[in-house]
């Protein structure tokens, strides 16, 4: 694998997003490799799954070059389908899943973190559901996970504003479960050790109950996000958002289809 590292530690399986030169932005190959790593994780007896990023951040979200390929609708659909598969695999994984966030967790990167059971964050981390800045809607189950954690009203406000949250702000909103100062790896290790001393089998059974109750709703959310995302990719607003991002200026949205 080029962009994903993984290691089976026995009781814990570790996946590292490893495209640091692009702040772990997720492109087609990286998403496919992530899916492959999750399949491998699912085949192990590990009861914990840790997902983290290398370099300066967790993940900046979807790769900008991949977004610029949105004119290829078939490619867009394939990518979104892979995203949906990845999210469903994490959500339904019969393990306790932990995301360790440092630096940026933006857009799809934030959705990916929220798909985990526990979200840990380094004090300086920034989280943003910032699809609105390029005229898109959240994918990766972002609507589902935000509503589950903070409710519909607050979720809509966060999506529509694209606000960048500090780790402390995210914790106050209950989007992050714990915030640590200093070495995130050390604190994550301590958190995982505490989990390993817990009755993990019972915890996983509780997860399975909620997963069984909610999986249909998550799947429906992913389908609706796919439809909305493909629709929004055809708009002038999305093209303007991409241009503005590349030109480092504020976008001028006009709400018209291409």
Detailed description of the structure:
With 258 residues, the chain is of the alpha/beta class. The chain has a single domain, classed as 2-enoyl-CoA Hydratase, Chain A, domain 1, CATH 3.90.226.10. 51% of the residues lie in helices and 16% in strands. It contains 10 helices and 9 strands. The protein has helices at 28-42, 64-68, 73-92, 108-114, 142-150, 152-161, 167-172, 184-196, 200-233, 236-247; strands spanning 4-8, 12-17, 48-53, 96-101, 104-106, 118-122, 126-128, 164-166, 178-180. Strands 1-2-3-4-6-9 form a 6-stranded mixed beta sheet, with helices on both faces. The radius of gyration is 18 Å and the shape is globular. The model has no long low-confidence stretch (mean pLDDT 94). This is Enoyl-CoA hydratase. It comes from Bacillus swezeyi. GO terms for molecular function: catalytic activity.
Low-confidence stretches are none
Counted by DSSP, the helix tally is 10
Order of helices and strands: EEHEHHEEHEEHHEHEHHH
What is the name of the CATH class?
Answer: Alpha Beta
Strand order within the widest sheet? 1-2-3-4-6-9
| Principal-axes shape call | globular
Beta-strand proportion? 15-25%
Structural category is alpha/beta
CATH fold-level assignment:
2-enoyl-CoA Hydratase, Chain A, domain 1
Count of beta strands: 9
The domain count comes to 1
Helix content: 40-55%
CATH homology superfamily name: 2-enoyl-CoA Hydratase, Chain A, domain 1
Rg result:
18 Å
User: How would a textbook summarize the main sheet?
Assistant: 6 strands, mixed
Through-space gap between termini: 38 Å
The overall average pLDDT, rounded, is 94
- Identify the CATH architecture: Alpha-Beta Complex
GO molecular function, one term: catalytic activity
Family: Belongs to the enoyl-CoA hydratase/isomerase family.
Protein name: Enoyl-CoA hydratase
Pfam families: ECH_1 (PF00378)
């Amino acid at each position: 694998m080029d962009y994903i590292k993984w290691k089976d530690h026995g009781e814990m399986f570790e996946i590292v997003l490893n495209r640091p030169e692009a702040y772990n932005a997720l492109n087609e190959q990286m998403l496919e490799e992530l899916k492959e790593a999750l399949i491998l994780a699912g085949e192990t007896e590990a009861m914990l799954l840790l997902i983290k990023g290398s370099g300066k951040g967790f993940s900046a979200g979807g790769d900008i070059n991949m977004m610029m390929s949105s004119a290829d609708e078939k490619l867009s659909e394939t990518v979104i389908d892979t995203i949906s598969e990845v999210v469903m695999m994490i959500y339904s994984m019969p393990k306790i899943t932990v995301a360790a966030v440092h630096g940026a967790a933006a857009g799809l990167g934030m959705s990916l973190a929220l798909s985990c059971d526990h979200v840990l964050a380094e004090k300086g981390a920034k989280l943003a559901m910032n699809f609105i800045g390029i005229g898109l809607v959240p994918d990766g189950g972002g609507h589902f996970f935000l509503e589950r954690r903070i409710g519909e009203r607050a979720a809509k406000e966060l999506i529509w504003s694209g606000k960048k949250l500090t780790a402390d702000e995210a914790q106050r909103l209950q989007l992050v479960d714990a915030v640590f100062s200093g070495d995130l790896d050390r604190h994550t290790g301590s958190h995982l050790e505490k989990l390993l001393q817990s009755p993990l089998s019972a915890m996983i059974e509780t997860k399975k109950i909620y997963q069984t109750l909610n999986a249909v709703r998550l799947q429906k959310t992913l389908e609706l996000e796919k439809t909305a995302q493909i629709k929004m990719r055809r708009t002038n607003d999305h093209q303007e958002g991409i241009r503005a991002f590349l030109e480092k200026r504020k976008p001028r949205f006009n709400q018209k289809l291409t």
